[in-house]
Amino acid sequence: xxxxxxxxxxxxxxxxxxxxxxxxxxxxxxxxxxxxxxxxxxxxxxxxxxxxxxxxxxxxxxxxxxxxxxxxxxxxxxxxxxxxxxxxxxxxxxxxxxxxxxxxxxxxxxxxxxxxxxxxxxxxxxxxxxxxxxx
Length: 135
What we know:
Elements lengths: L1 H14 L5 H8 L9 H10 L6 H11 L9 H8 L5 H8 L6 E2 L13 E2 L18
Antiparallel strand pairs: 1-2
């Protein structure tokens, strides 16, 4: 039941015109890192008024952490955010242009209004029906 609800939320997210997976990843990857930690997820949830604790954030990271390094790279995070059962919505979200966002984080990882993050390119994740496999 929980996974079915999560899939519905992923589909709703993918339908949003402003949602682009790599831009989302860059907003969470503090200081230009190439990964998102459980703490980053916890901060995001709390900033958006969701009740969450460290144990839950660790569990989410463990669920999607394919290389078992304790954090999420772009491919792992995209797998977490994109619909698994709706190829059209997945393709729609992946096809959107990357854009510059305000990261609202300072060097210590705290939110700081006005900091800009230029999003240049980013790794591609396999499109539905692609023969390329993700790591």
